[in-house]
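thought: fold this chain, then report.
action: predict
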Amino acid sequence: MKFSPLFWPIQLKGKVIYILDETKLPHKLVYIKVRNYKQACLAIKEMKTRAVGQVILVFCIFLQVVQQTKDKKKLLVVLEKVAKAINATRPTLSFKFLTTMVLNWAKSNIDLERCIKGFLENLRHKRIQQAEEMSKFLNDGDAVLTHCNISGQMPLIAQFARKENKWVRFYATETRPYLQGSRLTAWELKREGFDVTIICDNMVAQVMFEGRINKIIVGADNLAQNGDIANKVGTYQIAILAKHFNIPFYVLCPPASDARSGKDIKIEIRPDHELLEYQGVSLAPKGAKAYYPGFDVTPANLITKHIYLRI
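observation:
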């Protein structure tokens, strides 16, 4: 199988973490060099990497810290400080689940590096399995709508489908204001030779009405214990429309967080300027305000099937 650069966008080489700068795509394929946890946390806040890239980055941060900490007696204290910084970066993502896992390993006096590397290897393998499982629900000739970006899994799903002689085409919402759909999803699908059409976020109802879409696949940044999911803002309205038009709505999910339901998931409110300007160019009159919730919650009863990441 061929993997999109977005499938595994983080690499630790020596003591330096290399982060694929997703904000520069599709124009440039460049990597940011990160030499400490503060730089890594800033990259998360600024969405230089997102989705699974942030998960991989969390574990690479801890690996980097282990390598940089010479006095191993102070390692746990340092790791706890780093975990606190990571947990404060983006509220909607359940980083605490990941950081607590690492801290528990550290407290158990087992080989921390081995545990982290083993987890990452298992994550890679399970993500491939998740994409293959999703491909089983596709039929030859399907037109799939997706929103935001599922970190390299959409072209992988399409490749698995193609191996079964099922040819699938895609519609990607722009996913404003960061344009993950047009900049990332469309780029990686086109890169692997798949048919992809970009639509504005507000065209979804019309495109469904015209009968152009018969499956929907999205990701999730947070899965509550009752099956509710938080994903890029705009997912909820797509799920409502899917229910109205009787279109199957599939979600590629992470492991469940501590949230009992979607009501327990804190929604991140992004800075005003991200909505009011793009790449330094103003899109609104001076003095205009903006409100940008980065995520919304889709109730479990609107989801046809959860495709779980079983790690």
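thought: worth noting. The mean pLDDT is 96.
final: tokens above.
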